[in-house]
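tool=predict chain=A
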Amino acid sequence: MPPYKTAFRPSTSKLYVWSNWSRDSGQGRLAVDQAISRVSLVVRDYDEAIAFFTEKLKFRLVEDRYVPAQGKRWVVLSPRWSGATTVVLARASNDAQRRAIGNQTGGRVGFFLSTDDFWRDYNAMTACGIEFTREPTTEEYGTVAVFKDLYGNLWDLMGPSG
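tool=predict ok
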């Protein structure tokens, strides 16, 4: 067990670290002004990926603009009600990137979608044709199932137990 524990507070966008070596002389708590703000997902086509994420997963399209200097679009999506971490769609522009589409993490789950109501989202996703490769199970950390995105990347859908 590491000598620390962490908690992220989306409302403040701060990661809190508790440890026995913290500089805080009080409770051993140190607020860290760092967070992962974006992850990129290599896609074949911007528009088909936008349609999948906004229509099937109900993500919000945060930004979609052309960047002339780079000859590409800047496309940012976010799960509804989330502002802490966003997904940047990156259209593959060479053979190596095209080979990574759908296999960015070598067949492992690489993305984790948390929800406040697992069964609501699981049932909605199933109804719109999302393929689950691992049925829901209850683990010590909550209820989880694995699904594929439109390219085959694996995602965990995670929610509280119950």
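The chain is about 15% helix and 45% strand. The chain has a mean pLDDT of 86.
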